[in-house]
Specification:
Chain lengths: ~650, ~650
């Protein structure tokens, strides 16, 4: 057996042709990771999501029996890569659905969608004072009457242009400063970066290129990583790009990824993945806009606490263990190169501050963007992603919590769920004659259903009496209800030439209800704790990657949001990246974000006795207690 | 000829046995440098100091003719290493006078002398608040009710102990922090260092060893490097050590060293020398006191501007060229390891701020130590080293200047001059019967004359009428006057068994008078510019390596210092290191030093029309204008 393990097998993946050598007995999913082949995997290799299907074309292998494959699939040598061991040289075909190429095409559309941010206009409320600036600085050369040393001469000149009471200069910059100043005739471009209360001289160059200073804002989502390229001289967003978080191979949610990293001592690998994702986004935008990477002097990141930990390779393991502690909430600015991010080698990497292990800087960014921390009235901020985070409060107080809602509204755990990418059903109605009417992202044939479409589907099935208040299909009510492989399902789109069948299953509906119940229970727990009634809430801000045609009314219909007048509910899109950009462009905004993070009181729902009770009550449509949803018309009072 | 240069010759130096291979035609002095052999050299290889004498035992060489060698010496194959080219393999004997071993023995005594600092008691005037501190920090471990992240938990704990509004932590420390805190049970030793307005977390260790924190203060003299080892927990100086500045091979004064470095692109080499000197001092003290180098967390340096530039490898070349500009006056703290200094690898290196190219941080240290910046009355501070720097002022204003006095009072350019080391005549009187009475450092037989002895000699020769007011020997006045190889000389010590003859020559006296005249002219120029009269001066503080038995009255007799009552004149020793220690032990003292440096107005004497006139007038004993020295009795009114 020992000897057996020594034997090497060559695995070739088609159609990419990528190859990797692994010891006999290796898991095929890991071989794919090693080869750089992207395989969809939601459960992180535990063998229950059934997403990592591949076809073995040639060679010997051994697969664990699984109910996730039909006998037909097994006959065709289709296997779950995570349940298959390599026993000889193999040739493996990766179905097109896995490939990054496909993802990439979808992401182009994603990026455009994410760039339309309602919160973005708010950035202008802070004075323009970017965290990193390139200053055109002109000094008079030393004379007998003015023999100020070069270092102090530069400081005086910088202070004429920006407010910088405390300054720092790296040793290498200091060493090269005199020759540089002389060669440039004391006319230079100085890049300064703000680090806490200190201003660092990051770089000194001859003054050509003084006008080219760029930065990248990144939303580190568990599922999707979005980046915007900004011109720091004009404050304009000049490009956007998005990609799937390629850590997804190690688990759909970040808890699974932490477990994977811990069990396999793969923290470096996890960091590597997310860093490469960020680098790819940066390089793609820079190439497209013909921006020199050396002219990108800052990257600012916003994301959940775990993602920030992965990016910086900070120990994330206690995020998942009581008492749920982060390694750092307020991460100091570091040299981007220290984390492996390939911009100017002395450029800075900033991370927005987070509140707790389960309320990350993306939520702080949301509070900043929606400005609920400035208002006299009470606001509610809800961010639906892989988790559902909730913030309640006003200028005087802010409370927050995270529900492990699960990624159902991101399309995961839903048979035909998908992200808000090309072909996704983003809007859906069931007409009085029973016809299902829908629109897709990009207008093409439907490929699946994204968040806003799923919310519509759940609401329409309920309003039209196809499901009852517990979410159960009313069997016999509609001929499109049938029993499939995975139990009862409702056909939303019938199969035609060039168009697949799209259904929603009982399991999908249960998942969606669990998600919305988790979110609503979190909202209720915070409201109860602070004695806030729905009528007290002046504004509800819903953030997340639903897609831009989110019908916010539906969120009340299904009981995800409290029953407030619909005009008070605002879909604000990706506030994580909007907040990151706001902070990037204003030192005052960063200070404000830090104040917000310091001020937000975190409620740990896991240890909160009321939460589970609220959750159970919220598992009805819209809720057990119909008095909480007077505006929702309920056909049958179960 | 091209081929000739390719040929390699092996040069062996005795008695050390050190060898080096050099191309045929190489200069022997440079071969010695390359071999790591210490040769005394004052002129930096220009062939006029005659100090780099060695004996060629075997092999071929070619020497330029020189008047500095007697025909006898030439017959014995004694050569000036700087004027000799290597033509074949050579064996060379280095006379004992050159060897570091001898220097080392002398330095032990030097170190003891330098450690007796009158200014040191003043340090206590600043609150004890060292630049680097090791704090014992105990935190409660995270709980469900207190899930503060580790990074912020540490900050809160540090801020309970010290004032640190703005903090920074390096990325590597941040990464290892969580595991370290957990392993240590949240009880750690935290080393924090002050960097401008920022407090940096330098290191986090388990709390054993919380009590061992050391630092080294260094006076970077052009001739001598002095270091003190301090216990940062008790503020005590636990050891002292000194060595010659081994850059001396490249020139006696720093201007020559800058020229050498420029001509030979030897900046790295110059840095290497001084860094190694500092490292040797640190290692010597650490070994003797059984201090782990890892427990030395800071080094603080004070010295002239050029020496600080050499230490940090900052471009010093414009120090010697109009308009005489430094690369940096206020050098930010850096990682000591960045400069090659071998203490804790994350320990900090601080440099005191300087005023100008020719008024360095040693002078700022002097002002700090003597506290003249706090006084209502006018004070005069004079530091006699290789240069003579002068500061005049009070709490409201400070003016300063540097005279290129030359190192005569350090024993250079004086036939039997030497530093204040074992055997140096430090006190000398000529009795009424003409007998020369003297005491030596260590009490042994006289080896030469140090600064205080030279001042005595000049004053006694003058007071006893052996020289006239211009410094000329009165030929025939005393039988000890004779004509030697270098012109007229006066025999101070007659040769006996085991005791060498010690003389002072006309050239020596001319050098000493030039030095004192330079200093006095600088003082007068500052006094004239500020309209200060001698009677306005409340205190005169004389600093330098004269030796502890300096008779300050003599400094008035020869006209080096203005004629103020002798009780107002204080010899303050090495204020450079005293100031460095004061700053090391108190953040407030560093701020004060920065304020002082910012406040001092520099007078460039080279471009000052009055200075040369004052210098010419000061070349008399005590001065051309005797009305300036009413207390000095002058025998003959020339």
């Amino acid at each position: 057996m020992g000897q057996e393990k020594e034997r090497k097998c060559l695995v070739q993946f088609e159609p990419s042709g990528l190859r990797v050598e692994v010891p006999a007995g290796a898991i095929l999913l890991e071989a794919a990771h090693k080869a750089g082949v992207y395989l969809t995997s939601i459960c992180g290799g535990d063998g229950y999501c059934g997403k990592c299907k591949v076809v073995i074309d040639a060679g010997q292998f051994k697969s664990r029996p699984t109910a996730l494959l039909t006998p037909e699939e097994t006959r065709e040598n289709i296997v779950l890569a995570c349940q298959t061991r390599v026993l000889s040289d193999l040739t493996v075909t990766v179905p097109k659905s896995h490939t990054l190429e496909t993802s990439q095409i979808l992401m182009d559309s994603d990026a455009r969608r994410f760039s339309q941010l309602k919160g973005e206009a708010e950035a202008g409320l802070f004075e323009f004072d970017p965290l990193v600036q390139k200053l055109c600085v002109e000094m008079s050369a030393p004379t007998v009457r003015d023999h100020t040393a070069d270092h102090e001469r530069l400081y005086v000149a910088i202070r004429r242009v920006v407010d910088a009471p405390i300054m720092q200069t790296g040793f290498r910059i200091l060493q090269k400063l005199p020759s540089l100043l002389q060669e440039a005739g004391y006319k230079v471009a100085v890049t300064v970066g703000r680090r806490g209360g200190t201003t660092e001289v990051i770089e000194v160059d001859p003054d050509r290129g003084c006008k080219t200073n760029f930065a990248v804002a990144v939303d580190l989502g568990t599922t999707t990583v979005v980046a915007h390229l900004l011109d720091l001289n004009t404050a304009e967003t000049i490009d956007t790009e998005a990609t799937y978080n390629s850590q997804i191979n190690f688990g759909e949610d970040y808890i699974r990824r932490i477990i994977y990293a811990e069990q396999n001592n793969a923290f470096d690998q996890l960091q590597d993945r997310i860093v490469q994702d960020v680098n790819n986004l940066i390089v793609t935008m820079a190439a497209r806009q013909k921006v020199d990477l050396q002219d990108i002097t800052a990257v600012i990141c916003s994301g959940n606490t775990a993602m920030v930990h992965f990016l910086l390779n900070l120990d994330p393991t206690r995020i998942r263990r009581e008492p749920y502690v982060a390694s750092a909430g307020f991460v100091p600015p570091i040299r981007a190169a220290e984390a492996g991010i390939q911009i100017n080698k002395r450029g800075l990497l900033y991370c927005l501050p987070s509140v707790a292990a389960y309320v990350g800087s993306d939520i702080v960014a949301g509070v900043l963007t929606t400005r609920i921390y400035t208002k006299n009235e009470i606001s509610l901020f809800v961010d639906i992603g892989t988790n559902g985070e909730v913030v309640l409060g006003n200028r005087d107080w802010l409370v927050c919590a995270s529900s492990s809602a699960g990624p159902a509204f991101e399309g995961s755990g839903v048979k035909h769920g998908m992200r808000a990418a090309a072909g996704a059903i983003e809007k859906l109605n069931i007409l009085t004659d029973g016809t299902v009417e829908f629109t897709t992202v990009g207008g093409g044939p439907p490929a699946g259903i994204c968040g806003s479409g799923l919310l519509d589907t759940l609401a329409e099935l309920f309003v039209n009496g196809i499901i009852d208040r517990t979410g159960r299909f009313k069997i016999g009510k509609d001929e499109r209800l049938s029993e499939g492989d995975e139990g009862w399902q409702f056909q939303l789109v019938a199969p035609q030439a060039g168009q697949r069948e799209i259904v929603i299953t009982q399991a999908d509906i249960d998942n969606l209800i669990r998600s919305k119940a988790g979110v609503f229970a979190a909202i209720r727990t915070l409201m109860n704790s602070t004695q806030i009634k729905p009528g007290d809430i002046d504004g509800v801000y819903l953030a997340g990657g639903f897609g831009n045609f989110l019908n916010v009314e539906r969120a009340v219909t299904v009981g995800m949001l409290p029953d407030v007048p619909v005009e008070r509910i605002h879909f604000v899109g990706n506030t994580s990246i909007a907040g990151a950009k706001t902070v990037l462009l204003s030192r005052k905004a960063l200070e404000t974000a830090e104040e917000i993070a310091g001020k937000m009181t975190y409620f740990d729902l896991m240890s909160h006795p009321e939460y589970m009770e609220e959750f159970i009550q919220a598992k009805f449509l819209p809720h057990t207690d119909l008095l909480l949803f007077p505006s929702v018309t309920v056909a049958d009072k179960v």
